[in-house]
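User: I'll paste a sequence; please echo it back and then give the predicted structure.

Assistant: Echoing your sequence first, then the prediction.
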Amino acid sequence: MAPFQKYSTLLILLIFLWEAPRHAFSTTNDDIAFDPNIVIYPRKVYVRVNNDLDQSLKLTIDCKSKDDDLGKKELPPKGYLYWNFRPNIFGTTLFFCSMSSVYGTLSFDVYKFKRDYNGRCPNDCFWSVRSDGVHGTNENTLQEDLFFKWTP
């Protein structure tokens, strides 16, 4: 019986690690609730920002999070910036972008966990930069649901 007691802690840990990916928590209205779609190791999220400005207009964009800086990029007409990441397990992941063009400047949250992970873009966050501002598309409805206007 002694060998079983010696390894019982290890056995319990292995069972926990086996079962943990099947159970997790999500935030709904800032309350913790069970959600079988989220696992301890969150799924990857893909973000794409398209330069849909008028022909021949470049877009300067700088996107970052607390931990990652994607660097300042100049997107050619019809060019795009694309990246992926796994949100942190605390539900606080935030990526924001600042951009400038001939229409002005603007900054916005391109990915905010509480807004996006279980709602508007759980897998793919798509943004279109146009002459009037930045349009965000809801992945589930395929409708534009967010808009940020240029500041001249």
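The CA atoms of residues 117 and 123 lie 8 Å apart. The mean pLDDT is 83.
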